[in-house]
UniProtKB/TrEMBL annotation:
<protein>
    <submittedName>
        <fullName>ABC-type transport protein</fullName>
    </submittedName>
</protein>
<keyword id="KW-0472">Membrane</keyword>
<dbReference type="GO" id="GO:0015920">
    <property type="term" value="P:lipopolysaccharide transport"/>
</dbReference>
<keyword id="KW-1133">Transmembrane helix</keyword>
<comment type="similarity">
    <text>Belongs to the ABC-2 integral membrane protein family.</text>
</comment>
<keyword id="KW-0813">Transport</keyword>
<dbReference type="Pfam" id="PF01061">
    <property type="entry name" value="ABC2_membrane"/>
</dbReference>
<feature type="transmembrane region" description="Helical">
    <location>
        <begin position="96"/>
        <end position="119"/>
    </location>
</feature>
<feature type="transmembrane region" description="Helical">
    <location>
        <begin position="20"/>
        <end position="41"/>
    </location>
</feature>
<dbReference type="GO" id="GO:0140359">
    <property type="term" value="F:ABC-type transporter activity"/>
</dbReference>
<dbReference type="GO" id="GO:0005886">
    <property type="term" value="C:plasma membrane"/>
</dbReference>
<keyword id="KW-0812">Transmembrane</keyword>
<feature type="transmembrane region" description="Helical">
    <location>
        <begin position="62"/>
        <end position="90"/>
    </location>
</feature>
<keyword id="KW-1003">Cell membrane</keyword>
<dbReference type="InterPro" id="IPR013525">
    <property type="entry name" value="ABC2_TM"/>
</dbReference>
<feature type="domain" description="ABC-2 type transporter transmembrane">
    <location>
        <begin position="2"/>
        <end position="177"/>
    </location>
</feature>
Amino acid sequence: MVVFTIVFGNLAKLPSEGNAPYPILVFAAMLPWQFFANALAECSNSLIVNSNLISKVYFPRLIVPASAVIVSFVDFLISGMILLALMAWYNFVPNWRIVTLPLFILIAFAAAMGAGLWLAALNVKYRDFRYIVPFIVQFGLHISPVGFSRNIVPQKCCWLYSLNPMVGVIDGFRWAILGGESKIYWPGFSI
């Protein structure tokens, strides 16, 4: 968060959304991104890591990747406490939109579970695929609006940009937490 705030907020002078301080803008986007990235990485490796258990005991196989996503969700909740502390530090109070946050958390959970199941299946079939997953996650960080506002993306490119499933989730988090000027690109959110 500190690097994004210094590079994008101080050096590049990118605008914040509304009256929100730039660190809160960044952390409100890093929170769902970190949840998605951790859940995706853990879920994609979960079947390989637990292969001994899967081969010895019969149980629904979906439990293993789901448990990896749930563990990442616990990390997400702990990081949410840090966001609350950051909001208290800057005396930032969210408006009524904060009650919609569970909807966006559910969408992030579904996106992490869906993509994680795909990658877990690829990881089982092609064992070396697990080495590609960190590159996918790192690339996803740079094409998601984590360190910057989505408003700097040109309007003609928004539909292409919103093909990233985390753009809608991050926009939703910012809309729910920051309120004010923060907007959701609805065509991209529906994808």
